[in-house]
Design brief:
The protein has helices at 19-23, 48-57; strands spanning 5-9, 28-30, 36-38, 63-67. By secondary structure, it is α+β, with helices and mostly antiparallel strands. The strands form two sheets. The protein has a two-stranded antiparallel sheet with strand order 1-4. The longest helix has 10 residues, at 48-57. The radius of gyration is 13 Å and the shape is globular. The structure holds iron/sulfur cluster (SF4).
């Protein structure tokens, strides 16, 4: 079993050109100014490789995968 991860972005470093949204539209959409809005929660296993690729092609090194220790916590709802 893989450790749950989620996407994160350094909003200072990001230049908002949207390469990540083109590559990973399932998890990233752009706001009106072209800056990424990331889907909350864990990256699905099926998209993990693509998410890693998106992190790798970010020209500003602004996109990252980070541990998500609460992602697999049971829902309290
Ligand atoms: S690819 Fe990187 S720099 Fe470009 S919008 Fe996404 S996070 Fe920002």
């Amino acid at each position: 079993m893989t450790t749950p991860v989620r996407l994160g972005v350094d909003r200072i470093a990001c230049d908002g050109r949207g390469l990540c949204a083109e590559m990973l539209p399932e998890l990233v959409v752009l706001d009106d100014w072209g800056y990424p809005i990331l889907r909350q929660g864990p990256v699905p296993d099926a998209l993990r490789d693509l998410a890693e690729d998106a992190v790798g092609i970010c020209p500003k090194l602004a996109l990252r995968l980070e541990p998500c220790p609460v992602c697999d916590a049971p829902s309290s709802g």
